[in-house]
Every structure is written in structure tokens, then in C-alpha cells.
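Researcher: Please generate the 3D structure of the following complex. Treat every line as part of one assembly.
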Amino acid sequence: MRRKLAAGNWKMNGLAANLAEVTALVAAHPTPGCEVLICPPATLLAQMNWQKGKHPLAIGGQDCHAKAAGAHTGDISAAMLADAGARFVILGHSERRADHGETNTEVRAKALAARSAGLTAVICVGETEAERDAGTTLAVIGAQLAASVPEGATGADTVVAYEPVWAIGTGRTPTLAQIAEVHGFLRAELAARFGAEGNAFRLLYGGSVKPSNATEIFALADVDGALVGGASLKAADFGAIIAALEAA
Ligand code: PEP
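Model: Done. Output below.
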């Protein structure tokens, strides 16, 4: 049985004042019927961890370096994230692939570092609009999945997020049939590679999830939750998405 997961990605948004949104979210959902994760900027991790015990939220990083420590100015290691209270880390987000040229090989190395630090990696895959138009969506995603998810991955240390690049922050979403097709494909690929363990990986959909479309997306087979950007910044919106997942 896969535990449903509502994951918020704050990206490069959030100052200490925005922790009020977390307080409001917790007040509205003190005992959520699904796992709830917020990945704030690293600067807020310790403050969110300070609230640990007062809320059931898991916290996570948005990236980590593949090395445990060393001369890598500006980077943060998986062990540092864990030390600050993180239990998860998002890896291979399309914004990091685009802004920092991250490759599947690098994402895989980071996933291994995350595993060593005891973090669960949320590994993102997804096609560009040009790739979808060209009919190569499944080929692109299959290649990303194969090269980004390391050998020995399990449902406990790895979550896969399908995030079509063209749907992130645009207000556009794939059709339900398109989401279902990709999630079914991801499940089949994981099962082919990892056997029975392939059924243990949680599969999240991400890309313009909001209260108005969450219920229909969560009703799809093999959608175990969502990775939410913009709508995770406001307690009311993220809370409504959590409620939709609880009801699914
Ligand atoms: C994301 O950043 O992972 C994301 C899905 O963003 P948004 O929900 O804003 O499209």
C-alpha cells in the first residue's frame, strides 16, 4: 500500500514571514490523512524543523550536491539537509536541468548521495512541449527514468514525479488521459526494472496542480499524489489540495 504524498516545492520563494503559511496549514490540517511534505528554500529548513513536534509535516531540500562535503562553494550536501531536519530532497527538477544543465547522470549521483544520507529522493522526469509535439514523450521519460534512478532504488528511498516541463508554472495541464498514460508507463518501467518493488514507488504528478483540478488528477490510477509549486505557497490552496488527496 503506497502512502499518498502531497509535496510542496517553494522554489526560490519564502522568507521567515512566510512560515505563517505553514502555521496556518498545520492549524487547518493537524492530522492529515496523507503524507505532507514542504520543500522550502534551504534557509528556512532549520526554522521549519524547529517547529517539529508541533506539526506532522515532513520537510525537504530542493537539490543537493553529489558529494558529502568539500570545496563546492554555494552547494549543499544531502547530509547537511538531513542535519537541518530534511527527510526528502527534490532532484532533477526541470528548472535545475534547464538553469544548471543538470544531466541524468548527475541526478543519479545525487540520488545515491541522498540515499547515503538517509533522504528520500523525489526524482523529476518530464518532456518539453517540443518533445510532446514530436511524439517522443514516453521515449524521453523512459530515458530520464532509466538514467536518473539509481540501481537498488526502493519505494522507501525514491519517489518519481512526472512533471511535463510545459505545464510547470503555466496554468496548463496535460489531459487526464495523457497523465494516465505516462503514469502507467512509469509504473510498467519500474516494475520491469525492479520487479515487485516497482509497485512500491510513489508516483507524483506535478505541473499546475491547483484546488480546481486536484480531485480529477488524484482519481487516476498510479497517481499517488502531487508535486506542487505555486499553489503550495498559500495554506488555503495547498490545504485544499491535501484535502482532495485525503479524499481520493
Ligand atoms: C513544480 O515546481 O514542481 C511545479 C509543479 O510547479 P507549479 O505547480 O507551479 O506548476
